[in-house]
Specification:
Layout lengths: L4 H17 L18 E6 L8 H17 L4 E3 L16 H7 L11 E3 L10 H6 L7 E2 L5 E6 L5 E6 L24 H14 L4 E5 L14 H6 L1 H6 L4 E4 L5 E6 L2 E6 L14 E5 L3 E8 L2 E8 L4 E8 L5
Length: 319
């Protein structure tokens, strides 16, 4: 088949644009490097706790590089911190094998804001909360909590860290889920979410949970979150919901709410594009974000160091 000059130029333009987007992390900075224009930078990773297997180590190395570039003051873990059965106590060897001995870069010796995944419920959730008292960087003050961060422009970010497990009705029948599941009250947590968002004066609201709301990943949509959580995110102007559970990297949209999945901290599984999808890829990696003024820049980064996807979330979206 003959290729016209117009076709050649078009293909060259597309290839150049893709190369610029997916360039190696080491070759250029992710976001603004100068202190005057630097935003609130942080990393997000989920579904990682596999005792230092290769994919986990690859992602950890690139997280260290990114955190150093960004001078990230904290990292967020969106659950499934320890496979397959969580931890049994604060002295469980998994804390060392899957966390302390893996994320060793100097740039990652910062607070890790942690939430629980379904695999964590197979062990002692309380042990992960209690580990906060033993570790200088592990932060899980409760099963759900909120942190407020200040921005250089005078604005602020309210970050809500949820425990989405009690919302998932099928876990009541899961023989692997421990007794702690039955003690949790999803209605009480939902009331706390509504109150916290309603009282928030922050210019940005970011919510973290383990389970996806909508997804193109293997587990499918979480209907309980579609019914109960998503309406609150829309009502109170939450700009982004960031999760794990599906072992992939995704970006979807539900009206004005941007949905990101960063559950690719180790083993990955197939992901597909849906009608709500902007991006989906089954490749080990993590998410990096920078909030500044009227925008949140998001990068989905592979364990090879490539920036696979870039998107800018506006502070306010009219749908």
């Amino acid at each position: 088949m003959l290729t016209t000059r117009r076709d050649f130029v078009k293909k060259l333009f597309v290839a150049t644009a893709q190369l610029a987007l997916a360039g190696p992390l080491l070759s250029s900075g992710l976001f603004a490097a100068d202190a005057a224009s630097r935003g609130l930078n942080f990393l997000v990773v989920g579904d990682w706790g596999r005792k230092g297997q290769k994919d986990q180590l690859d992602v950890a190395k690139q997280m260290g590089i990114a955190a150093a570039q960004l001078e990230a003051p904290f990292v967020v873990s969106v659950g499934d911190n320890f496979y397959d059965l969580g931890v049994s106590s604060v002295d469980d060897a998994q804390f060392k094998l899957s966390f302390e001995s893996v994320y060793t870069a100097a740039s990652l010796q910062v607070p890790w804001r942690v939430i629980l995944g379904n695999h964590d419920y197979c062990g002692s959730c309380q042990a992960q909360i209690d580990y906060s008292k033993k570790s200088k960087r592990w932060e899980m003050p409760a099963r759900y909590y909120v942190k407020t961060e200040k921005l250089t422009d005078g604005g602020s970010v309210d970050m809500l860290y949820l425990d989405t497990n009690p919302f998932v009705a099928k876990y009541a029948r899961d023989k692997h889920i421990g007794n702690e599941f039955a003690t949790q009250d999803s209605r009480a947590q939902l009331a706390w979410i509504k109150m916290t968002l309603a009282e928030s004066k922050a210019t940005w609201k970011i919510v973290f949970g383990h389970h996806p709301i909508y997804t193109g990943g293997e587990h499918g949509d979480t209907q309980e979150l579609v019914d109960d959580l998503l309406p609150l995110l829309k009502q109170y102007g939450v700009q982004a919901y960031i999760c794990g559970h599906d072992h992939d990297l995704q970006h979807l949209q539900a009206g004005a709410v941007n949905l990101f999945c960063a559950g690719a901290g180790s083993t990955v599984r197939a992901a597909e594009m849906t009608s709500r999808s902007k991006f989906a890829k089954a490749q080990p990696g993590f998410l990096a974000a920078s909030i500044k003024g009227d925008a949140m820049d998001v990068r989905l980064i592979a364990g090879t160091g490539e920036v696979l996807y870039a998107y800018t979330v506006p502070k306010k979206v009219t749908v």
